[in-house]
Amino acid sequence: PDMVIMDICLKGKIDGIETAIRMQKNAAMPVIFLTANADEGTFNKAKAAKPYAFISKPYKQVDLQRAIELTISHLAGEHNNSAPVDHIGDNDHPFILSDRIFVRQRENMIKIIIADILYIEADRNYCRIFTKTKEYVLSITLKTIEERLNNQLFLRVHRSYIINLSQIDAVADDHVIINQKAMPVSEGLKEKLLQRIHTL
After folding, report:
1. Has residue 105 been placed in a domain?
2. How far, in Å, are 106, 116, 148 from residue 97 at the CA level?
3. Domain that holds residue 60
């Protein structure tokens, strides 16, 4: 899982804290605890699982949503070996991790696997992310997302397009084709495109 939201009080022999610790032994994953037991003893015990957040019940939806966004932000910072990404409150900026990107769609943070992205198209101050099954519209510029994407997989081939090199179906003299979509290639970027294709 990308993230675990765990109630501390579970039915069975072990509680949510012990469950989280055992899960983390198999794979590193962020944990957010929910609990009606907000006493100091429970809180100190929960620290052993190194949770990203500890939320007391009853809780507001906005509190959980913010905890999730902060967790994603911290993860992005860890993957980039830097401080947590400061986009909390900047609703349309994506959180980009090593293999996935989280984008806001209305009230939800939607996960997109980076390898599934076909191409990204500029639309004035917006950009559109296309996968084989869906399109996502973000109110950020193409330049902003270009600076944060993995440049080993993506290449800007035109002022209006960033493409996923692994998704190219065909290359013509002045355009590339991905999923039956033809996208222009700027003259100054064609040589770079051909060099990158040869190294794949």
Report:
1. no
2. 21, 14, 10
3. 4-83
